[in-house]
Design goal:
The complex is a heterodimer of chains A (about 475) and B (about 400). Chain A contains 23 helices and eight strands. By secondary structure, chain A is mainly alpha-helical. In chain A, β1 and β2 form a beta hairpin. Chain B is an alpha/beta fold and about 400 residues long. Chain B contains 13 helices and twelve strands. In chain B, strands 1, 5, 6, 7, 8, 9, 10, 11 and 12 form a nine-stranded mixed beta sheet that branches. In chain B, α2 packs parallel to α9, α7 crosses α9 and α10 packs parallel to α11. Chain B is globular, with a radius of gyration of 22 Å. The chains are: A mainly alpha (about 475), B alpha/beta (about 400).
């Protein structure tokens, strides 16, 4: 039987991120209904990201000298890095956890890379705004964002020489899924999207002279369609609702889809495409809290890093450490592997990522030595080659060796101040371990605990618990 | 076998709940699963960043080449002549030696339809072996493991690095990333891992994902132990070039010679992304590649292993034919691949080099799909079901 606290933690871990230990103490006795309500209330606020320099897009690379171009590209690359840092910090500190988690879900669903922080930010903020709103609005906002139009080559999609990339991915990955359209549908949709472009400042731009005005036949309908028509026709197809609810279910509930539940969810989602309503339905259902759904999902790298830092806050002397961890673990925000996004689940795990996951608490809390080098992203390699050897050497060394971090143990220990010594082990395991945990492995774990003082007890217990495979689950 | 592993082995083997984990534990701890005679090994070398193939295998009789590359072309007086039209970059003396003694084949003009000029997308295509407009979530060597290696040990495919490439990730099985067998051994032999593992095995769970984590952990621990023991059984005395790449090749040679039953090794060198001042950087890397491979082949020959090893190089794209304004080259398309081994079918230059008079917006037009090379290697060398792994039947190149 799951305790009420486990259920509340399940709600937060899946639909958001873990509340601080002190907050959890007070949430532990809430009803599910109240907790879900609170989750939605907290997510009413929308905190847009700010990083990404507008000046970077006003520059035409062609007009630059070689030296200026180098400098420009280095600055541009920093834009995306700062955006990554800003979002990670927001995920760690936000109260609007449902909105941010939903944004993270859409970030993987509408996977996109942009070399420009400014455009990447625009897309990310559009997702955050519509994260719990109407799916049709979200789809349109994403489809008209400069980051996505550029990423899927719609700038090259012209009447005379159509480029099908955008049309194909909108259907294959964003809405219908494979098998629910034909190659002819793609060709006709691509023609309808001709002329969809953006201005340098990021505003959507429709270039009439590049648009194919001819008659198109798409998903059984014929007419002089433009891009908006295509998206509207797609949205009328019930496959969209099925495709999206299944993906939502796999992400928030269980990788193994329950066809009956998903069919029911899809049926009501198709009526209004209200994402908030869909989420509310899932989070207030009894089946969401079934034992088979609790503690059975492997945390994504971002979930792991964020939840760890929400439990025991850490400040790194070099903020790049967080980016480094994302790289080693295989999930760098704003850098999806391709437009299909991160596969997730077991795909996160291989021998080296698992060993690194289990070693993180040692690196962060015990200053164990870090020695793993992530693979270099080729675009970064390009920038690195522009720096001199000394700078390269310095950057390399910064990540190796011991991490300099200040760890806020006081707040974590303080959260358990009212817990009796004899109950401390269970209180901490209940909070950190989502698989069934009364007396969690006490006979094994005890060997690794330093019992000198309450502080050393909590610290060593926490670090040890975070180093076992069970902590990888949520 | 160390004490703990024997103990763990005995413990696991006696538990019904561990039946899921049994086959691989057994395999890993049986000590030496004798390497089948004539067992073939593939070594994949990734030249990251997009190597300039035209300055690697130089068309020294081609006027267009010299016209389009006024300052960075390799002078015909310097090249290492292969035949009447092609020569290797002058720094590649060791590979010229391999060519001369019939251990090397060159396949020119390898690419794919609708080439992508972005590093990460084109690398994604090469590593997954997908069409340019398809997205696969597994790597081609990972799918090889999925299809052909369901009962194999965790070390069936090893990448010499700290983290694993996409190419090595299958749906069910993945390769292992190992840059230093000794360090991996030390990192994985932590007492808490063993304690937790033993405790976990002793209990019933219905949590398949947690099972998977424990299984991966246990497999990593036992593989690291086994690899380290093997690794210690042979120490190469061959001189490898300084640097990461040489060190990695040496590790791979030691593992091969020690008789570790690994089918695929993967190693990277780079970055070849030479937009600016190409000559120095590319030649430094090509020398590292060539000297490294020279040493590697020598090492394997001395141990009578070269006949069972095939090396394949690739890069995510070649470079633009015309040099840019910074004595470098920008991202291009088709490229050459090297196949090196002691049992090649056809040695030397497999096909004509690119036609520089017939370009596609300044880029080479490919002749051979890279998946034809993969298919050949999978089918002829690894005896695997290439069409299943690649999702289509590609023509073979008659080199292996």
């Amino acid at each position: 039987m799951l305790t009420n606290q486990k259920k509340i933690q399940h709600l937060y871990l899946r639909a958001g991120f873990m509340p601080k230990a002190s907050v959890m103490q007070s949430l532990a006795n809430s009803s599910i209904q109240d907790a879900v309500k609170q989750l939605f209330t907290d997510s009413n606020s929308i905190a847009s990201l700010q990083s990404g320099d507008e000046s970077e897009i006003s520059v035409k690379e062609k007009d630059l000298s070689e030296a200026e171009r180098k400098e420009f590209r280095m600055k541009r690359a920093m834009g995306v890095r700062r955006l990554n840092e800003e979002w990670m910090n927001q995920l760690i500190s936000t109260d609007a956890v449902l909105r941010e988690k939903m944004t993270l879900f859409w970030h993987g669903h509408f996977a996109c890379r942009s070399p420009f922080g400014f455009y990447a930010r625009g897309l990310n903020n559009a997702m955050r705004e519509n994260a719990l709103g109407n799916f049709g609005d979200l789809l349109k906002a994403v489809s008209k964002s400069p980051a996505m139009l550029a990423f899927l080559n719609n700038q090259q999609n012209r009447k005379q020489s159509p480029n099908e990339n955008f049309a194909r991915e909108v259907m294959e990955l964003f809405t219908l899924g494979r098998g629910n359209y034909t190659e002819d549908d793609i060709k006709n949709a691509a023609r309808a999207f001709t002329g969809w472009r953006f201005k340098l400042n990021g505003d959507f731009d429709f270039k009439e002279e590049q648009h194919d005005e001819g008659v198109k036949t798409f998903l059984g309908k014929t007419g002089n369609f433009n891009g908006d028509d295509i998206l509207n026709i797609i949205l009328q197809d019930p496959e969209v609702s099925r495709y999206i609810t299944k993906k939502v279910y796999r992400y928030f509930v269980n990788e193994e889809v329950d066809e009956n539940i998903c069919a029911e969810l899809a049926q009501s989602f198709a009526k209004d495409y209200d994402i908030g309503k869909l989420m509310n339905k899932i989070l207030t259902s009894d089946w969401f809290y079934d034992e088979k759904n609790v503690g059975t999902k492997i945390k994504s790298p971002v979930e792991l890093i964020v939840n760890m830092q929400r439990a025991v806050p850490v400040k790194f002397k070099i903020p790049d450490v967080v980016l480094y961890a994302q790289k080693v673990l295989g999930e760098v925000l704003f850098m999806p592997p391709n437009v299909a996004g991160w596969p997730g689940g077991r795909d996160w795990i291989d021998s080296s990522t698992l060993m690194f996951r289990l070693a993180i608490p040692g690196f962060v809390y015990n200053q164990a030595e870090v020695f793993i080098r992530p693979k270099e992203n080729p675009d970064e390699a390009e920038h690195r080659m522009m720096q001199d050897e000394e700078m390269q050497e310095e950057r390399q060394q910064k990540m190796m060796g011991r991490l300099e971090a200040s760890v806020d143990w006081a707040s974590f220990i303080g959260a358990f101040a009212n817990v009796d010594d004899t109950k401390l082990y269970n209180a901490i395991t209940e909070y950190l371990i989502q698989t069934p945990s009364p007396e969690f492995k006490q006979d094994v774990i005890s060997k690794y605990i330093v019992k000198d003082t309450r502080e050393t007890f909590v610290r060593s217990l926490t670090t040890t618990l975070m180093s076992v495979p069970e902590y990888q689950m949520c | 076998m160390t004490d703990y592993s024997r103990r763990d082995f005995l413990k696991y083997s006696g538990l019904a709940s561990a039946s899921l984990l049994m086959p691989r534990f057994l395999k890993a701890f049986q000590g030496n699963p004798a390497v089948p005679a004539g067992n073939k090994t593939l070594v994949v070398i990734q030249m990251s960043g997009g190597n300039d193939g035209l300055n690697t295998v130089v068309p020294f009789k081609n006027d267009d080449y010299y016209k389009l590359r006024p300052t960075i072309a390799v002078p015909d007086t310097k090249i290492l002549t292969l035949n009447s039209e092609l020569g290797l970059n002058p720094v590649m003396t060791a590979m010229k030696g391999l060519y001369d003694d019939g251990s090397m084949a060159i396949i020119n003009n390898v690419g794919y339809p609708n080439p992508d000029r972005s590093h990460f997308r084109s690398m994604d295509i090469w590593q997954s072996a997908s069409d340019a407009d398809k997205y696969l979530q597994t790597g081609w060597l990972g799918r090889y493991l999925d299809n052909e290696c369901s009962g194999c040990a965790g070390y069936s495919a090893i990448e010499a690095d700290d983290t694993l490439s996409f190419a090595m990730k299958g749906e069910k099985r993945k390769g292992m990333a190992i840059s230093d067998p000794k360090r991996l051994y030390q990192d994985t032999q932590r007492k808490i891992f063993k304690d937790m593992s033993a405790d976990y095995m002793a209990t019933q769970h219905g949590n398949s994902e947690l099972d998977f984590l424990y299984k991966t952990q246990a497999d990593t621990i036992s593989s690291a132990d086994f690899i380290y023991q093997k690794y210690n059984s042979y120490h190469s005395t061959t001189d490898y070039p300084q640097g990461e790449f040489g060190k990695n090749l040496k590790n791979i040679a030691e593992l091969i010679v020690s008789g570790l039953d690994t089918r695929v090794y993967y190693v990277s060198i780079g970055s070849f992304d030479t937009h600016v001042g190409q000559k120095n950087r590319q030649e430094k890397l090509l020398k590292e590649l060539s000297d490294g491979l020279g040493a590697f082949v020598k090492d394997l020959k001395q141990n009578d292993k070269f006949k069972d090893v095939l090396v394949m190089t690739f890069s995510e794209f070649g470079r633009r034919v015309k040099q840019n304004g910074s004595a470098g080259t920008d991202h291009g398309t088709a490229n050459n691949m090297f196949l090196i081994g002691g049992s090649l079918n056809k040695k030397g230059i497999y096909n004509d080099s690119a036609n520089l008079a017939d370009l596609d917006e300044g880029d080479l037009k490919y002749q051979i799909d890279f998946r034809s090379v993969y298919a050949t290697v999978l089918n002829r060398w690894l005896k695997a079901d290439d069409s299943k792994i690649l999702g289509a039947q590609f023509n073979y190149v008659d080199v292996v």
